[in-house]
Amino acid sequence: xxxxxxxxxxxxxxxxxxxxxxxxxxxxxxxxxxxxxxxxxxxxxxxxxxxxxxxxxxxxxxxxxxxxxxxxxxxxxxxxxxxxxxxxxxxxxxxxxxxxxxxxxxxxxxxxxxxxxxxxxxxxxxxxxxxxxxxxxxxxxxxxxxxxxxxxxxxxxxxxxxxxxxxxxxxxxxxxxxxxxxxxxxxxxxxxxxxxxxxxxxxxxxxxxxxxxxxxxxxxxxxxxxxxxxxxxxxxxxxxxxxxxxxxxxxxxxxxxxxxxxxxxxxxxxxxxxxxxxxxxxxxxxxxxxxx
Length: 292
Hints:
Elements: E1 7-12, H1 20-32, E2 36-40, H2 41-47, E3 54-55, H3 57-63, E4 66-71, H4 73-83, E5 90-94, E6 104-105, H5 109-117, E7 121-126, E8 129-135, E9 138-145, E10 148-152, E11 160-166, E12 169-176, E13 178-182, H6 190-193, E14 205-211, E15 221-224, E16 229-235, E17 239-243, E18 246-251, E19 256-261, E20 266-271, H7 276-283
Parallel strand pairs: 1-2, 1-4, 2-3, 4-5, 5-6
Antiparallel strand pairs: 7-20, 8-9, 8-19, 10-13, 10-17, 11-12, 11-16, 13-14, 14-15, 16-19, 17-18
């Protein structure tokens, strides 16, 4: 059992009209459980909830001891990146589609949140990727990614050629539509659709997946997360890199993208009895055809 929470932040799906009543229900429930409740500033503006203090994400990290995120995995990713430096625990209520990391359905939030607020929950910590873009030996862009770093060709260009080094050792020259380097969390996202394996969140590794490679021998590979992966743009027009959909376009030949494990980790809380395997079974329909 963990300690009881005292001050919860409520963060909703951005640009989601009509979310006000759902967020109001959740906020009222949290208040009834004895918590102080604040809203993310953008959420408060969109939902029209003026009865609660509105905080920036940095203020939430500094002042709250729990964040309840209502939306899809995309919403959770943006909040997770912001809250990781504060080690603020996150609870996800799924108002999107798949919901691999927002695993509580809206219809079940009362039953799930009640015990969790009192300290009865499952907790897991997940690693993130620290990414940098280097040009002429200078860092021109730095950020973190919970899911993946994707280097890809331009929208109207042919293949991109990439040089891949791991811990300073040359690994491969890859001609493809692009390359994905994903965390275990991101292994069920773009990397999975590109043919990569699923990594359990407890595995200390990354998965590196070519996107539509020219040579069929270029296959996905699982790497330890203790080192550095470097990807250099060798050729190809209008190549870009995305860190959880945060993009930097028009990379130049010779630009290098480096990735290593972030010093910060994401804290996810789940209802007691939560199972990663049950999540896979439900979201990927692995139990189809099973007769109970």
